[in-house]
Amino acid sequence: MKLELKIAHETGELQDAYQLRWTILRKPWQQPKGSEQDELEANSITVVAKARNQIVGTGRVHLATPGVGQIRYMAVADEEQGKGVGKQILCMLEAEINKRGAQKVFLNSRENAVKFYLANGYVLVKEVDKLYGVIRHFLMEKQLHTTLVK
Ligand SMILES: CC(C)(COP(=O)(O)OP(=O)(O)OC[C@H]1O[C@@H](n2cnc3c(N)ncnc32)[C@H](O)[C@@H]1OP(=O)(O)O)[C@@H](O)C(=O)NCCC(=O)NCCS
Q: Which secondary structure element, helix H or strand E, spans residue 17, and what is its range?
């Protein structure tokens, strides 16, 4: 699969990214449309992975505090999971926020994704509140190295 990774700028691309977020992260838990976005979209970087001109994966990062990035909304289409798409998105999010001054990133990982983040250099900090009262959630973080800056 030939993959193109880019920062989503156009409205259509962002809408497709939000749709994928909703399908993968919200719909299975009966969450309404709109719950896949928050007030930080305009100040965030949304990365999309495209194959055959379709968005097959996405993720978002923003500067939570000076020097610290937060990654949210990592979602890869069901049929494309486990093929390295998520790893490439994560690398690009880290590189982009590193360019903007972050030396560290954190995220809240669902239980099913903890091994994915461990495989990508994150450490588990602690368990946090359950999502929707049922999904176990874990605070994880990673130190970024200045060598990421191109
Ligand atoms: C979690 C998710 C973003 C990972 O993306 P992905 O494209 O499936 O993952 P990749 O194929 O890039 O995996 C990269 C690495 O993580 C490992 N990995 C991925 N998912 C894993 C899992 N569930 N258990 C163990 N290892 C896993 C892979 O083996 C791979 O390791 P390697 O590079 O050493 O071979 C994706 O599976 C997804 O969208 N899941 C459903 C939604 C979700 O839970 N999102 C995260 C919310 S916090």
A: helix 11-21
SS3 label, residue 82: coil
Q: Is the CB of 24 under 6 A from ligand 1?
A: yes
Architecture, CATH, for domain 4-106: 3-Layer(aba) Sandwich (3.40)
| Residue whose tokens read 């990365």 | 47
107, 69 Cβ separation under 8 angstroms: no
Q: Are the C-beta atoms of residues 21 and 73 closer than 8 Å to each other?
A: yes
The domain limits of the chain are 4-106
Q: Is residue 93 in contact with ligand 1, taking CB distance under 6 Å?
A: no
87-136: pLDDT as tens digits: 999 999 999 999 999 999 999 999 999 999 999 999 999 999 999 889 99
